[in-house]
Structure formats: C-alpha cells, structure tokens
Amino acid sequence: MPAQPPVRMHLAKPAPSSAPKHVVPSSSISTAPNPADSKAWPPKLRAYVERAFDKCQTQADRTTAENALKKKITDAITSNILWTKDWANEPPPFTPPSFLAGPSSSSSSSSGKSAAALSKAELKAQKKAEAMKRKMTLDDSDSTREQEKRKQRMKRFPDAYARATSSFGGGASASSSSAMSSGGELDWESLTVKGTCQELEKRYFRLTSAPDPATVRPEPILKKAIKALKLKWKNHEDYAYTCDQLKAIRQDLTVQHIKGRFAVEVYELHARLALENDDIGEFNQCQTQLKELHKPDESSATTSSSSSSSSSTSSSTSSSTSSSTDGSEDGDHSSGTYPHAAEFCGYRILYYLYTNNQSDMARELKQMRPTMRREPAVVHALQVRESLAFNNYHSFFVLYKTVPNMGGYLMDYIAPRIRLYGIKVIARAIKPSVPVSWLAKELGFDKDKTCRKWLVAELGASLGPDGADLDLKASGSAIAKAGTDQQQTDDQQQQDGRD
Questions:
Q1: What are phi and psi of 25, to 5 degrees?
Q2: Measuring CA to CA, which residue among 145, 178, 182 is closest to residue 164?
Q3: Distance, CA of 127 to CA of 400 (rounded, Å)
C-alpha cells in the first residue's frame, strides 16, 4: 500500500474546509431537468437508418425496413450497446428485393445479353433477384392466411401483445406507421421508453425482452432514488445492496436513453464505490460507459479547438464558462460541464495497464485531446505507463506514493507483479544481503513489518538473525521460483477485470 492510503469515497458531500486537497468529493446529483438528453441519438445510427431507407423503392420495402430497424435498435438498447456499436460498418437490416432486381433486370433488358455472356457476378445477382421475386410472390399469395393466423395469436395473448406494442410509443397497434413521422422518416422519439414507475427502490434484473414502461422509473424518480440511496449508505455501508440499486438505476437510464449530467454522476458514483469495494468488474462497466458519456459533441469539439488556437488561455476559459451555463445540448457534453472527465481518463489508463490491454490503450491515446494530456491525473497515469514500459520499478513505486484521487486502488492491482520483478532484479544485482528497511521503501511498502511478512510468507525468503536484513544468497532460488505462481494469479485477476 502507498504511504498515504487511497481516499475513501463518501456519498455525503463533505464540507469544503475539511476535505483534503487530493480528495475528489462526490458532487451532489443535479436535479435540473434536461429534456434534450433523452432525444440524443448516435449520429452514426441516424446515418445508418438513412442508408437503410434510401434503398427502399416501394412502401412495402419501407415497412419491412422500418420493422427490421426497430428490432435492431431495441436489441441494442436492451443490450446497452447503442452508443458503443459500430453503426458505420453495421450491415443493413434489410435489402429490398426491388433494390436487387431493379438494376439487374434493367441492364439485362437494355443490353440484351445472353446468359452465356453474363459474368459470374451478374449471374449470381440475377439468380438471387429471381429467387427473391419468387419468394415475394409466394408470400403475397399466403399473406391473407398469415394475417388470419396472427389475429388468432393476438386473441390468445392480448396482454403480452399490448405490453409489447406499448413499450415504444404507447400505441395499441403494431403497424409500421406508429414509428413514422408525418414526413415519412423514422420517429426517434417513439423508440424511447417513457417510464411510469413511482417506486424509489427496485431490484436489478437482467432484461430478456423489451422493457415494460410500468416497471421503469422516470428521471425525477431516479433522482429521488439516488438521494435516498446516499442517505442509506451514510447510515449503513452495505455494498451488495447499494450496487444492486445502482445497477437498477443505470438500467432505467439506459432503456430511457437518458444522458447528460445526471447519468454521468450516477456512473461516476458507482465507479468510485466499486473501486473502494474491490469490484473491478463493475468498475470496468462504469468506466466504459463514462468514456462515451464524457465525449464532447463534434460541433463543440471543433468550436473548442478553433477557440483555443485563436485566443489566449483567459479568453478560452471564459468561453467555456459561458457555454457551460448556456443550457444547450452541446454545452451538456463539453469538457467544462464534466469536471471529473480527466480523473476517469486517468483511471482508464491505469485499468488498461492492469489488464495489459494494448489495443484499447493505443485507441485511447490516439483519441485523447491535447488539453486532456495536460491534466494532472492523466499526466500521472501516462508516467506510470512509461515506467512500466521501461521496467523501471523504482519510478513506478515513486508514482505509487503520489497517486492522485482514487488511482491508488487501481495501482494496488499492478503493484504485486512489479514488486516481484523488482525483488528479482535486486537479488541478481546485490549480494550478499540488503536491509529490509531499504527494501520496504524501494518496493512501496508502508511499513517494514509488512515488507518482512511478504518476503517470508509470499516468497519463502530467508532473513538474517535479527530479521533486519534479507539474505539474498540463501533466498536466491526461492525468489526465482516465486514468479510462476504469482504470474498465474496476476493473469487470473486480469481476466476477471476484463470480464
């Protein structure tokens, strides 16, 4: 452990005079409504929907494409991957047969090519179009019979059908027109669940179908639930109960597509509690979502970049202050609105170092803005990365003792393997003995007693007669063998963190 242990996270907001300078107090949850948050959708998803409708040439094609889009978007919301899914490279949910048959039939009729003269690609496309056309003909002939069967199924399960059709828009009909606007475009608002539940407490259950609005709490109720949960944590720190309630709140935020300050503070709160309670898996889920929630809009990022290049530091500061007080949607996602974005960026870098996730680390560094690189928490995390890249255990443990915010909890996961590497280097370089007090400082222990216990119990090393020195000559083989079991333990911990 570091000489100064990591700061515990308290839900109650402490008085400014009593909080240490390196503590990041949990900010009170904002109660100001932000109606624009529930209307925000990923720009790549909007482009994906437009591409799907551009291929439609008939009303039947639009109806089928719309139903396929609704199902795909619903599945993404239920799986909590709406903002992380790569919509730019997602295959279209439906390719109209008229889109396949149109170019092929017209080109063949105009050119008069014979089947022998057609290329393999053209033959394949023509056969596919003809097969699709035959299928559509069969579907049309059986459409009346199929509609009668559907009506019979609806009569058998009226309650389930009513819940399914009311989940997105509240309509009693599942017709395609319910999700279409007057201009013939997809109505994004109809795809957002609007919760009606008034209960403050709700257990978390994994969704296996479209959410029922009657069991989803709206944003004002969620804010009250957070306040009640803070009070309960202050009186009794039950992490299992608190984690379950926070997961249920996060789920209600996700299915209603609520973003902005309130969602950010909920995820930040849960991430800090997870760090405190050694729940690295839950922390990973929160920091993954925070990476998207902390992202500025492209328009605000462009404005910020041009402002910083054409004005001084003082003018850019006043500009960011005015934008954060403006109430616009861009302001909600600006870096000034989320004061803890740099803190969690530092946590993310430390987490990638712990899990040895090189691909995500490279992506994070590539996407990082120059202003973020100058933040103290990010500077410290990048220095840790550099010390690990050069196997500099001495530099690592110097940074270990000066870690800001709650980064010490994450460095605690990395420290064991660095200690093992450091003691092996020391055992090869120094003979015949070394003071335990010096080892404790060099390897980041807060007390000599803790270092002595680690040497004997974990490594099986031999100490001098008075226990003040480590006998490196007698302990060389034990230290060399200690790495195998420790490496297996580290690998298992890293896998648990990724999961």
A1: -70, 150
A2: 178
A3: 66
Per-residue model confidence as pLDDT tens digits over 54-103: 777 777 777 788 878 887 887 777 777 877 788 888 888 777 665 555 54
Across residues 447-473, what is the average pLDDT? 88
Nearest in space to 345 (alpha carbons), one of 297, 410, 249: 410
Tokens of 313: 């530091």
Reduced 3-state DSSP string for 15-37: CCCCCCCCCCCCCCCCCCCCCCH
| Residue 148 neighbours by CB under 8 Å, 6+ apart | none
Do 219 and 262 form a contact (C-beta atoms < 8 A)?
Answer: yes
d(CA 333, CA 338): 8
CA angle 128, 131, 132 (to 5 degrees): 85
- Tell me: the pLDDT tens digits for 406-418? 999 999 999 999 9
Phi, psi of 172, rounded to the nearest 5 degrees: -95, 0
Tokens of 461: 């090393």
Cβ proximity of 388 and 354 under 8 Å? no
| Residue 443 clears pLDDT 90, i.e. is over it | yes
- Bigger pLDDT: 392 or 304? 392
**Separation of alpha carbons 281 and 385, rounded Å:** 21
Distance CA 194, CA 252 (A): 10
- C-alpha to C-alpha distance for 332 and 160, rounded to whole angstroms: 38
Decide if pLDDT at 216 tops 70: yes
Q: Say yes or no to pLDDT of 51 above 50.
A: yes
Rounded distance between C-alpha atoms, residue 418 and residue 394, angstroms: 9
> What's the CA gap between 346 and 327, in Å, rounded?
28
218 upstream amide cis, omega within 30 of 0: no
Question: Contact 403/2 with Cβ under 8 angstroms?
Answer: yes
Contact 210, 201 (CB under 8 A): no
Residue 441: both structure tokens together: 């400082």
The Cα–Cα gap between 454 and 442 comes to: 14
AA letter at 486: Q
Q: What is the pLDDT of residues 143-192, one digit of tens each?
A: 566 666 666 665 655 554 454 444 444 433 333 344 454 445 555 555 67
Model confidence band, residue 244 (pLDDT cutoffs 50, 70, 90): very high
Query: Mean of the pLDDT values across residues 320-347?
Result: 58
| Nearest C-alpha neighbor of 241 from the set 204, 278, 267 | 204
Side chain identity at residue 496, one-letter code: D
Rounded to whole angstroms, how far apart are CA atoms 444 and 440? 6
